[in-house]
Specification:
The protein is of the alpha/beta class. The chain contains 14 helices and 15 strands. The N and C termini lie far apart (115 Å).
Length: 367
């Protein structure tokens, strides 16, 4: 009996040791589970700072601001801006006031700055009045690019210059001279607003050009302003016909003014007596080139101007460039550009030379 009890006790101890050893068996294998740090080594998840390191990708909303809405020239520039936005994978809002007015533009820009966009591309209604607004944007970390019409250098990072200032003014006087013929005659300028910096600069160049011997038979009788408003520009052109019965050429360095002036000449049945030239777009001027009211006019491609402005704005916002002379960046289909420093214009990027349209090439362009 004693031997039997001892046997039972030994049997129980053996069974218990087997159970304990079975429970402990996985212990050596556990390292395999702890090797699953392949999952914890997936601090590839912590390498996701690639997402946090890309504040560039986080910045997607930009704003293109024209002088005013409802202007075919600025609408064409916006088409180019949207093309660039699609290529860059960003959003470019197109926002402006109804009229070309510096006070309204400043109010709009203050509202936009409060929304902290990634960048602003502005066609300025007043070079000096917008400086404090531009500085406020830059102080808030918002890059400011101007295009078409510059804010003074202190109020922006870079200006996208559509063409060399002198070339634009000079080509308008040359076209007026070609149209007037060897006998010359009276010419007038119908500009946009009296404060538009680009218009005023071109007009000053025109006045200097008129001092040259080859233009001695041209007489500038007056500069008037249509405020980039179609109706006012049309009425100003009609007033010139009445005030100067020997008027030969109206130069309108504004797309609104040139179309309104050419329409006024057509409506007044003055084709062949009074001619119009200046800066316009092919689609708006086609009719007037063909009917003889505006035999030739010039411009750069505003779609390319808007396109380049967006690429420059994005390059600044993503720190591809710092906004200093010598900076280089690539603007999609337009190729590489270099930031230049001009004593008058300040830091700028030059789009290219103006182009002249006439009856021989007007149908080759559709914008």
């Amino acid at each position: 009996m004693k031997n039997r009890s001892l046997f039972v006790l030994l049997t129980a101890l053996v069974a218990l040791s087997l159970v304990l050893s079975a429970c402990g068996a996985p212990t050596p294998a556990a390292p395999a589970a702890t090797e699953a740090p392949a999952a914890t080594e997936a601090p590839a998840v912590t390498e996701a700072p690639a997402a946090t390191e890309a504040p560039a990708a986080a910045c997607e909303n930009y704003v293109l601001v024209p002088k005013n809405l409802g202007n075919p020239y600025f609408d064409t520039a916006n088409n180019g801006a949207q093309e660039a936005a699609k290529e860059l994978g960003i959003t470019v809002l197109y926002q402006g006031s109804a009229t070309a007015d510096a006070t309204e533009q400043i109010t709009l820009l203050n509202s936009l700055i409060a929304q902290k966009p990634c960048g602003l591309a502005i066609s300025a209604d007043d070079s000096d009045a917008l400086v404090p607004t531009g500085k406020a944007a830059m102080d808030g970390g918002i890059p400011v690019v101007t295009w078409d019409s510059a804010i003074a250098p202190a109020g922006r990072n870079i200006h996208i210059n559509q063409a060399v200032l002198h070339d634009i003014g000079a080509i308008e006087i040359k076209m007026a001279s070609d149209i007037a013929g060897p006998d010359g005659g009276e010419i007038a300028v119908l500009s946009a607003t009296s404060t538009a910096p680009n218009q005023n600069a071109w007009i000053e160049v025109m006045k200097e050009e008129l001092k040259k011997p080859e233009y001695s038979k041209l007489t500038l009788v007056e500069v008037v302003y249509g405020d980039d408003d179609d109706t006012k520009s049309y009425n100003e052109a009609q007033a010139l016909f009445t005030k100067y019965p020997n008027l030969k050429v109206i130069i309108a360095p504004t797309t609104v003014g040139i179309a309104a002036s050419a329409r006024a000449v057509t409506d007044a049945k003055l084709i062949g007596k009074v001619f119009v030239t200046g800066l316009g777009t092919p689609n708006q001027m086609r009719e007037y080139v063909k009917n003889g009211a505006a035999p030739q006019f010039a411009l750069w491609n505003p779609a390319d101007l808007g396109y380049l402005a967006v690429y420059a704005m994005h390059a600044l916002a993503t720190s591809e460039i710092k906004g200093v002379a010598g900076d280089k960046f690539t603007a999609g289909k337009l190729g590489e550009y270099t930031v230049q420093d001009d004593p008058d214009l300040g830091l700028n990027v030059l789009l290219g030379l103006p182009f002249i349209w006439n009856k021989d090439n007007i149908d080759a362009s559709n914008w």
